[in-house]
Amino acid sequence: MQLTDAQRVDWLRLIRTDGVGPRTFRGLINRFGGAGPALDALPDLTAARGRRITPPTRGEAEAEIAAAARLGVRLTAMGEADYPKPLQATDSAPPLLAIRGETAAFRRPSVAIVGSRNASAAGLAFTERLARALGEAGLVVVSGLARGIDARAHRAALATGTVAVLAGGQDRIYPAHHAGLVDEILGAGGAVVAEMPMGWEPRGRDFPRRNRIISGLALGSVVVEAARRSGSLITARFALEQGREVFAVPGSPLDPRAEGTNDLIRQGATLVAEPDHVLLVLALLVVDDGTASPLAVDRPDLADEPIFWDEIDLDGIALSVPAEGLAEATPTGLGEAVDDRARLIAYLSPTPMGTDELARASGLSVRVVQTTLLELELDGRIERHGSGAVSLIGQ
Asked: Looking at the record's lineage, which domain of life comes first (predicted)?
């Protein structure tokens, strides 16, 4: 899929609307067939729920796109070639991702390395050794640009490839003194990504939002040092919920910075004492496009996810769009998605089937099957089983 300029403006207006997060965005696209029709319907739809919401104007969206372009930032949509495929496979992936730098990093397998801001010297030394070795083995290192472990991981992987995920807008680097590190990452051929608008100063709950993107970009997440209640453990939780690997570096029981990592190991995370402990696990997951093979994990109920957005409640609203209006309003590529959805549903049944089997039976590409299954899962139409198999729920 490739959005036109007009469609990109519509997508940006919709995701920047109060009450619209990734889940509501997908629900509106599915109901109306595109962002344009959803924008037209949204004020009356929300008024019927007792709270009339008006999307940002076209001029406001165009101004944000222009400001991003001046900084060399591209707003890339899910489904477009440069959107990171591992992130796209997650339940709460941003519909639009602000990307600065080289997108070649997204076509290689990645590993996240996160940890304490107030890291120990031993933790920093191990992080440097680990990030350098994983980078030399062909993995891109993803982290959150924070002080301590994150910054050391980025610097150790500059020569081999690293991606930084921001909690605020692309023009609001946090912490501010890491602006130079951002320049180093971009100068070395890495990338910096953000979900939030230009000019957005990061707030408390923006950091967990960022953490789900860090884990979503990677095959697995390594936690080097983390206190018992820390943001790094949130990243580990997201990695587990996204079906990714979780690794932890053990530490002294006398060091509070090791309490979280030691707990992760006790709960089943892979212990990491040398780079090979990560490489041997991830080597089994890497396929040609750098994404993870299906993992036999229990996927979380979306209702149990953390509340990041005050999203509009669309449950119980029966909507219909005239067929002729839908055909005119559907962006290029999304009309085909409606047909792909119907075709795939025809091949689904209460008997679990694998993604490859569904692709062969339906004649759709594996990428289209995976994307469509994600939409069906968000609608509560399918159930996931071990080894990537899915089955239809009801009719």
From this structure: Bacteria
Give me the long-range contacts of 295-298 (CB less than 8 A, separation at least 24): 295/243, 295/244, 295/388, 296/386, 296/387, 297/240, 297/243
Would 364 be classed as within a structural domain?
yes
Query: Which of 245, 196, 201 is closest to 86 using CA atoms?
Result: 245
Q: Which has the closest alpha carbon to 90: 297, 267, 343?
A: 297
Which whole number is the average pLDDT over 275-289?
81
Does residue 357 share a domain with residue 224? no
Could you count the other beta carbons within 10 Å of the beta carbon of residue 285?
Answer: 17
Q: Is the dihedral angle over the CA atoms 14, 19, 22, 24 positive or is it negative? A: negative
DSSP state of 119: -
- Among 282, 317, 347, the domain boundary falls at 282
Which residue range is the domain that position 372 belongs to?
Answer: 333-392
Mean pLDDT of 161-175: 97
- The secondary structure of residue 105, as a DSSP letter, is G
